[in-house]
Specification:
The structure holds two protein chains of two kinds.
Chain A: E1 2-6, H1 8-18, E2 23-26, H2 33-44, E3 51-54, H3 58-70, E4 75-79, H4 81-86, H5 88-96, E5 102-107, H6 121-124, E6 132-135, H7 139-153, E7 162-167, E8 176-180, H8 183-189, E9 206-207, H9 218-247, E10 255-258, E11 265-269, H10 274-286, E12 291-296, E13 298-300, H11 304-311, E14 316-321, H12 334-343, E15 352-356, H13 366-382, E16 389-391
Parallel strand pairs in A: 2-3, 2-4, 4-5, 5-7, 6-7, 11-12, 11-14, 14-15, 15-16
Antiparallel strand pairs in A: 1-8, 6-13, 10-12
Helix pairs in contact in A: 1-2, 1-7, 3-5, 7-9, 8-9, 10-13
Chain B: H1 31-43, E1 47-52, H2 55-58, E2 72-75, H3 80-96, E3 106-112, H4 113-118, H5 121-129, E4 135-140, H6 181-188, E5 194-199, H7 203-215, E6 220-225, H8 229-232, H9 239-248, E7 255-258, E8 261-264, H10 274-278, H11 289-306
Helix pairs in contact in B: 1-7, 3-5
Classes of the chains: A alpha/beta, B alpha/beta.
């Protein structure tokens, strides 16, 4: 295993090369573009063999990826922010055509105002459409998750596309030392993409025809998607275990727990901000406060059981939302409302507090997280949250 | 296709096999359905068809039924060029990397005029620039026929559609001059080696062009006129006749552009007056004699530009 110091986008480009991807479809938008620049260089230098197709917009980029996947190719694509929104239609049909495309998202604020900073709304707004969604914390995890994504997406029991979400700038552009896997390890972990029903002239089929509008078939197709997502839970667990054995890096499949044993206050978080949250928890634990952090690694399928297990015994739960959901229940963010509904109905369910933080790429400091924990510790004592929603670091 | 002449000269050059068979529910006299049959025959069994949303999706490929003997897949309304490029990229990569073996697989994107000239213009242009090996066939019935005859980018001036109804305040119907799609592709994409126009009323010419387009190693484009009895308002027994009239009056040209050089593949001996074509269709029934003179003038100009003697100068 070779150790290299690289950014998140370079790390993912190496995962794509190691996975022996056949077709790459590219269109530029910051902050994800670097992965496509690096892949273009690798292909141009003959480092690995793939068709590199330059698209005219994200709609075409994701359509090309979907069709290449349906023709039997292992495919990589990606986007960021409003670019991913431009691809909304292909995003919908990639999942419903059961094309196991793997895409990287360099999470970015949606326009307007134009802003390169991180927000998770670009991914989370599409959470209900049938994409498996992983959120990385750093470059190493981004690389590892990309390999995981192919293994899970292409599994015959799943066949759903997968999205590897990486915080814009904080993951995409920050240099980190990473362990570069060996190609023999990747071969042992990731079988070739080999699906049964494809566009093959020797076995002709018609794919994705029109169904009747009085509900003859579409309903059953929806249910099959749900079952694929349910199966994905099992496959993600299996694949995570194999990953640890083969690569020596062990990841919990759904949520990563930090100092949650006996915690009065637990913060739920996604992505790279969790580093500062953990540091805040460490400092408070050193002072005798019982606080912990849960980082969600897999957002779809949603880790409801895993969160229930950790959270029902907590005194209070805080959710850090780096996204928006205008007009939502209780004014909460997307993650908070998913967490709250996962906890609903448990007799001793803790109060849930929502913390909007880091929108538009604003820094969330260790002190900010200490402040959030203090609010939660008060709520844990009184078993009641003073407010449903806090906007951390907002200029008012 | 190895060793076989590309040109379809007569019925004896046409394969007996059907690759677009029964199992569709298109209208009687449907021009686009005839196009599917001819294109599939010309392309042969090692072909994959990608069909954009439109008549040839909704009326053609109902679940549990399919007229396609070759593999077929739906693509989104504005994604014909992307579907062709993506599928072709997969085959190219897989064959080069020896993950897929056997003879070349033809890739054809079949899309209507709305899917091509309007919502899919980006994808068409991107696909033509992609260098990928596929044939884009635009079946042009000059309207969004599947949704009930709305004006598209290729709807001709003066046509009735449900979006351009002739009325007291606006008696002409469609006042937009249609896009010149094949020329847009040919002029705007210098790396595309084969662009052609065709008509289902000239089946050998069309089938030859399908084979020419597939023989090119890279993207190719054919715009084939497919009269629509319902949208153009003529009797369903007259589809081919209306198609012929379009060409014989100079309202539609049959040409190919090979590496940038345009050549007419059919020259009407004597162009007929445009009124014969216009009066054959109910969608133009509201046009006045003056309107038809306007149409004739435009046709004359186009004929001169492409090198045909206008009918009014006989």
């Amino acid at each position: 295993m070779v150790r290299r110091v690289v950014t998140g986008v370079i790390a993912i480009a190496n995962a794509v090369k190691l996975a022996d991807v056949d077709v790459i479809t590219a269109y530029p938008i910051r902050p994800y573009t670097g992965v496509m620049n690096e892949l273009a260089r690798m292909v141009a230098d003959g480092e690995f063999d793939a068709e590199y197709v330059i698209a005219d917009c994200e709609h075409s980029q994701f359509e090309m990826a979907k069709h290449a996947s349906m023709a039997g190719a292992r495919v990589f694509t990606g986007s960021a922010g409003i670019g991913f929104a431009y691809a909304y239609e292909p995003i919908v049909v990639t999942a419903s055509d059961r094309a196991p495309v793997v895409a990287m998202l360099g999470d970015r604020t949606l326009d307007d105002p134009g802003c390169f900073g991180v927000e998770h709304t670009d991914a989370l707004a599409d959470r209900d459409l049938g994409w498996i969604m992983f959120f990385a914390e750093n470059a190493q995890e981004a690389l590892d998750m990309t390999l995981m994504a192919y293994r899970v997406a292409e599994d015959a029991r799943v066949l759903l596309p997968a999205l590897v979400c990486c915080d814009g700038h904080f993951i995409t552009h920050v240099y980190r030392p990473i362990d570069m896997p060996e190609s023999e390890q990747v071969k042992a972990f990731l079988p070739p993409y080999n699906r049964q029903y494809l566009l093959d002239p020797d076995r002709p089929v018609s794919i994705a025809p029109q169904v009747g509008s009085s509900g003859e078939h579409a309903y059953e197709f929806r249910r099959q998607m749900v079952e694929a997502m349910v199966a994905a839970r099992r496959i993600i667990s299996e694949a995570s275990e194999d990953f640890g054995k083969i690569f020596g890096r062990k990841y919990p499949p759904f949520v990563e727990e930090y100092m949650v044993q006996g915690a009065d206050a637990v913060l739920i978080i996604l992505g790279n901000m969790s580093m500062n949250a953990r540091e805040a928890a460490r400092q408070l634990r050193a002072k005798g406060e019982r606080v912990g952090v849960v980082r969600i690694r897999t957002y779809r399928p949603f880790p409801d059981v895993e969160l229930q297990k950790v959270l029902v015994s907590a005194g209070a739960v805080g959710v850090v939302d780096c996204n928006f959901s205008y007009g939502s229940p209780l004014g909460g963010g997307i993650v908070c409302n998913d967490v709250r509904s996962a906890l609903y109905g448990f007799p001793r369910a803790p109060p849930v507090v929502d913390f909007f933080a880091g929108l538009g790429g604003r820094e969330v400091t260790v002190e900010d997280f200490i402040g959030m924990f203090r609010i939660l510790l008060t709520a844990a004592r009184t078993r009641k949250a003073e407010k449903n929603v806090y906007w951390i670091g907002l200029r008012e | 296709m190895m060793g076989v002449s590309l040109e379809v000269k007569s019925i004896s050059d046409v394969p007996r096999e059907e690759y677009y068979a029964s199992g569709h529910r298109t209208c009687a006299g449907c021009g686009p359905a005839i196009m599917c049959k001819l294109a599939a025959k010309a392309a042969g069994p090692r072909t994959v068809i990608l069909g954009a949303t439109g008549c040839m999706y909704v009326a053609n490929t109902s679940y549990y039924l399919t007229p396609w003997v070759v593999p077929w897949m739906h693509t989104q309304l504005g994604a014909g060029g992307s579907a062709g490029a993506g599928t072709a990229a997969a085959f190219r990569a897989l064959m080069r990397k020896r993950k897929l073996r056997g003879e070349k697989i033809n890739v054809i994107a079949l899309c209507g005029d709305g899917a091509t000239a309007d919502i899919g213009m980006n994808a068409l242009s991107g696909g033509m620039l992609s260098g990928q090996d596929f044939l884009y066939i635009c079946y042009d019935n000059q309207s969004y026929a599947n949704t009930g005859i709305q004006a598209s980018g290729t709807t001709p001036w003066g046509a009735w559609t449900t979006f351009t109804p002739p009325g007291r305040a606006s008696p002409t119907g469609n006042v937009r001059l249609n896009k010149n799609l094949a020329r847009l592709v040919a002029t705007g994409h210098p790396s595309v080696e084969y662009v052609a126009t065709a008509s289902i009323a000239f089946p050998f010419d069309f089938m030859t062009k399908v084979r020419e387009g597939l023989a090119v190693d890279g993207p190719a484009f054919i715009q084939v006129q497919t009269p629509c009895p319902k949208g153009w308002r003529f009797d369903s027994s007259r589809t081919i006749e209306v198609g012929r009239l379009s060409v014989e009056t100079g309202s539609w040209f049959l040409y190919e552009v090979v590496k940038g050089d345009l050549r007419l593949t059919y020259r009407p001996r004597e162009l007929l007056p445009v009124a014969e074509y216009v009066r054959a269709q109910g969608r133009f029934a509201h046009l006045s004699e003056t309107d038809i003179e306007t149409v004739q003038k435009r046709v004359d100009e186009a004929c001169r530009e492409i090198g045909l003697a206008p009918s009014s100068e006989r």
